[in-house]
Amino acid sequence: MSDMTQGNAPGQHYPPGQHPDMPPPPGTVGFVGWLRNNLFSSIPNSILTILAIYLLYAAIPPILGWAFFNADFEGASRTDCTAAGACWALIDVRGKQFLYGFYPDEELWRVYVAGFILLLAILPVLFDKIPFRKLLFANTILLPVTGFFLLSGTSGSPEAILPTVETPQWGGLLLTMVIGVTGIVASLPIGIALALGRRSNMPVVRTMCVTFIEFVRGVPLITILFMSSVMVPLFLPEGVNFDKLLRCLIGVSLFSAAYMAEVIRGGLQAIPKGQYEAAAAMGLSFWKMMYFIILPQALRIVIPGIVNTFIGLFKDTSLVLIIGLFDLLGIAKTVVTDANWIGLIHESYAFVAVIYWIFCFGMSRYSIWLEAKLHTGHKR
């Protein structure tokens, strides 16, 4: 075969095995190659790509015009918004209500301190190398509980150091975070216990766990919230009552724990039987086997399912409006009933949607990062 046929210059020869690679055909690499492989690989894909570009062209400019270019950002009422776009003055004037509900201004320092305590509880989960990580990790549950009691204060005489802030005054993002964080922190350990109980060899324990899981998963969250708010006080002794928010937190935590138990049970079933046999051969007790060998592997497998349950719980906090608690979405509906801001439901819902998206997207990205960090050669 001639040198020209082999792609060599005339008279140029290469030792066997040292011939340079030929350049790729034009249009198969770079930006053009990416377009051909991903967007225009076939006639149907090309049609869908063109249709998607047209829809984006038709939708994005009006949305940007309404939200930014033609929007008003200052004003004391709706009448001050004269532009054709959004009236973001609503968020500027009622922003504190969106964040804290009806929490007293003079007691907002509690919210900031509780937020700092929550940050301390989250840091050991997010970062490996921080001071006092083991101490903070050991108090992951205690710290949020401390923040909750700080927000509510202590009941007693007016001369008390911390006057009580009744939970009906809580609202907005504050209430959403309290319900969401409490449900997330409580549902994981309860779900693990229920999953282990459902796979237990003890008939009584297994029957109790199966009954609880199937019953709770068979009714909607709205029903559980109604039961906790309306029915539970009817069964309590006279003079005994719990705060409505506390009853709501218990109901949400148990509801989420039932779904969490099924997610974790799937992870336990994915562990090969040889892992159990190896742990038993080493003489480990049941709890040591679960703590050191089985649960770490099972939880790593079901990280996407766990985070998905957390995200669903965070969004389901909006259902507490039906029992008279004004979370972020409830405040969004309440604000626009004011005569000064009536009719601005689009701005209110858009602001709430952005907040929900930030938190849910953050949890999903953390899930992806955690999966990449913990995989031990099983990644496909």
How would you describe what is shown here?
By secondary structure, the chain is an all-alpha fold. Among the domains are: 40 residues, no CATH class; 225 residues, MetI-like fold, CATH 1.10.3720.10. Helix content is 64%, strand content 0%. It is built from 15 helices and no strands. Helix 7 crosses helix 10, helix 7 runs antiparallel to helix 14 and helix 10 crosses helix 12. The longest helix is centred in the C-terminal third of the chain and has 30 residues. The two termini are 43 Å apart.
Give the SSE layout:
Elements: H1 30-38, H2 43-69, H3 89-100, H4 108-126, H5 133-138, H6 142-152, H7 172-198, H8 203-217, H9 221-235, H10 244-270, H11 273-281, H12 286-301, H13 303-316, H14 328-335, H15 345-374
Helix pairs in contact: 3-7, 3-14, 4-6, 7-8, 7-10, 7-13, 7-14, 8-10, 9-10, 10-12, 10-13, 11-12, 13-15, 14-15
Task: State the main characteristics.
MetI-like fold; mainly alpha; 15 helices; 380 residues
Give a quick rundown of the structure.
The chain is mostly helical. The protein is built from 15 helices and no strands.
